[in-house]
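This protein record is not my work; I was only asked to verify it. Would you go through it and say whether the fold makes sense for this chain? Here is the record exactly as it was handed to me.
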Amino acid sequence: MINKVILIGNLGRDPEVRKLESGSAVAKFSVATNESYRDKSGEWQTLTEWHNIVAWRALAEKAERELKKGSLVFIEGKLTHRTWQDKDGNDRYTTEIVAYTLRSLERREGGSRGFGNDFPRAEDELKSSTSFNSPAQVTDTPSAEKQLPPDDDDLPF
């Protein structure tokens, strides 16, 4: 079974980080994702979805250091649902994404880190695919001359 969520969106607020009695850090923040479409009259409409994110321990500390309101962020995690009772005894429900990967996609001052640099490049794909295949595929040619493995059109999926 799979429970996996991948989001790229903007932070709605700075991460709120707390330390538990055990010493573990927990961060909570919201991320907005947008979907654009044309309505019946041909006008562009934007639908914004808000997602509640929870990050634990070192990931919570990373969120506190690197993320700010409005930041573009990549989140990978799992969907969870919680139930609790409020102070009046009413049952309350919430849906959250518990993050296990978090990357800021913002450019840093003086650096080139950004959206394109946080994801594998073609060269990285070549290295990972050849490391699991026969060593005969690895060559000593300069990176500009390296070619990606052939496309397997006969895969059953």
Q: What stands out?
A: Residues 111-146 form one domain. The radius of gyration is 21 Å.
